[in-house]
Fold these 3 entries.
Entry 1:
Amino acid sequence: MIISEKRQAEGVLFLKNIFSGLFPVLTVVAYTSHLSPLNTLAWSYFVATIFFAIILTVKREWKKNITNVQAIRDVALAVLFIAIGYHVLYYISLSFTSPQNVALISLTEAAFSFIIIGLITKKEPVSIKHLLGAMLMLLAAGIVLFNNAQASLNIGDLLILCAAIIAPIGNIFAKGALHQISIFYLMFIRSLAGAIIFLCASIIFEKSVPLEIIIKSLPYLLYSGLIFLGLMKVVNLFSFKKTSVTHTIAFNSLAPVFTFIFAWIILKNAPSIVQIFAIIPSFIGLFLLTTAKQKQTAYGFEK
């Protein structure tokens, strides 16, 4: 039986969601070892830079990518919105809120993807079913943000919400760049830029982290750089090419299920009533987003 490219992408995305669900939990554990957000990002991007440089060297793809100057605009804007904007908000948010809240609120990236990419930029037209699913996912985020147990809005929840809003913009430029350069070169540039920028920011804004703590945290930094900022981002970009940005992001919304499981096992942090209640509209919305029919186009998939 021949498996379609779309089904292949979905299979790889499912495995990716397991690792993605584990990441917020491991990050919270790493922060208890006195790692700081910007320093963590800098070292993680450094690991990812080496990883992608090795791949480009083995595949001998340096020359054909470096000489492609037409992709500079798309690459630069993808770096700005994803490598810098999204990830700094994501890592810092985990200093202020729980990994479960981060997982739930980050689901709104799927909703904002359909709103921004579908309704506003009209890159990937959406259906009523898509919009209804997006609204349900925004409702779930609202339940977490405005629950009565909090006297005021949690800064970590707001940061991850902002990250979810800007991510679709970066994904538009990332997909544009992929029509001109290889996935690995785009990830190398994103990683190199992130390593340089966040190393400088860490030196300026954060206390220095002792070398022994960095060495002790090496397993986490390798996971963060090789898996989260490396292989998982490649899977996303691969899926962008085989399906669409909106379909990929919607399918990624399975990750919070694994975050709740890992948080319960590793952190002994059982989900709250509010979080459980928020899951219901989230997954109804996810079902609507991922089951809406799409047809392939030159850019991606249409409804």
Note: The chain has one domain: 5-302.
Entry 2:
Amino acid sequence: MPVTIGEKNQRHNRDLHVNAATHKPMNPDIPYLLVVEDEPTQRQILTEYLSRQGLRVAAVPDGRLMREAIAAEMPQLLLLDVGLPGEDGFALARWLRERHPTLGIIMVTSASDSVDRSVGLETGADDYVTKPYDPRELLARIKSVLRRTQAMNAHRSAPAVSTHEMRPVPLGRCSFDRGRRVLLTPDGVHEQLTATEFDLLDLFCQHPNRPLTREWLLETTSQRDYDGSDRSIDLRITRLRRKIELDADKPQTLRTVRGVGYMLVLDKP
């Protein structure tokens, strides 16, 4: 009997689920991406497009299979749809960020819902794309996040550098260890930073006591243009303040400069 298009799609998606949960690790030099998307056609299109770009891709439709895929092999980046059945993308992003601080996470949200974009970044996602999106724009975002996460992992696996420049920088209630890319709390606990959080905080440390505009911060850390309504920098600042300030509601270290942007206030040596 001839095979219908629907049956072909079902077989393709079933193969993706099996491959994601059981495949053996391949060339470590090729970035491995996991797509979590419940819509079969969109999942197939994404997988085929990204595979043609030289990436290694697996795809699953929900959180349960996502966990199975991660147990089989940890991806470098996860493309996570917000509107998933069962556990939504926000819940999964929180679960992932608590357990895998350096994993790259890009949220896929509805173009009409700015709340989704805000909540996604608050959960610790590195970036977001909105539907419908240009595949080339998505690929650029993926490459940008991969560069940051790969740099983060490379620094963490490299020997520690004990130079004056790399000494921890006192920031509010903790210190920023730029060499190891972590925050140090007063009781000696290492608080992990995402790749995006590190890039932003490191940029402030390179330009202390100077007001930096939202536009410049976004374009420098995310390699994308500021459109006037983009709140991603504001949300990342909020996350950093919760980690470094004694009182995040009354920030003294990472301050708002009205009409400009933000400034990191450091005592001059």
Note: The mean pLDDT is 80.
Entry 3:
Amino acid sequence: MKRIFLFLIIIGNLFYTGCSRTDEPLPLREGNVIVLMYHRITAGEALNLYERNAADFEEDLMYLIYNKINIISFNDLEKIKESGKMPEGNSAVICFDDGDHSWYTIAVPLLRKYRMNATFFLWAEMMGRNSFLNWQEVAYMSNITYPGGVKPFTFGSHSYSHQYLLGRKGSFSTIDEYNTFLDYELELSKSLIETYTPGEVTILALPYGDGAGDPDIIAAAKRTGYSFIRTSRYGAIRDPDFDLFNIPSLPMLDNTEQNEIGYYLNR
């Protein structure tokens, strides 16, 4: 009889514990961040390595959604560094270089379809020429607003004339002449973009990826009001103590497979 009574007590305690406990989801592990760098998006087949067709681009966006990769901004990168902690789950920053008109006709409609944000780096001298955006289109894109008042599309500088910023160093007689060249490239592009877009331009993408980590270029960026430099150096951000003036990226080329995004995030 005592055994039966003890058994009933144990069963009752298990039942009570099981019914009263709140099952909370396990927290996500700290993730990494990848910066995805695009150039021209084509409606049909890509004609060179730096182009990506619209179908592949849309599949990239779907890959991010399916794999629960959060879309964040460069400003979020600054918050990560300040917090000293990587965000829960993997994240991606989407950006584009140069200023091709396909951003307006293909990239932005697809980004809006999936409610994603992006940063666009402009080769300022070329606006309104050839296949590039004009300033009115830049102004329109920068003022697109999602529900809740969020403006998802920001603009950064790809310099004024898209020269090799470090490669040109040897053509100047003095460091002062070189600094004058850097200040001109960074200040003029920043000023032009700010004329047509809301907010301040604080992000520089190095033309050709030239000069990543160079102290003179970093000093010029800081001197002219930039808070970030995005490079073309392959890699992901894995530590909150990363360098905001030497941000790596993954170029999304014609031959880039979607699983490369996961490879760089998870390796």
Note: Helices lie at 2-20, 54-66, 74-83, 102-113, 135-142, 175-196, 215-223, 259-266.
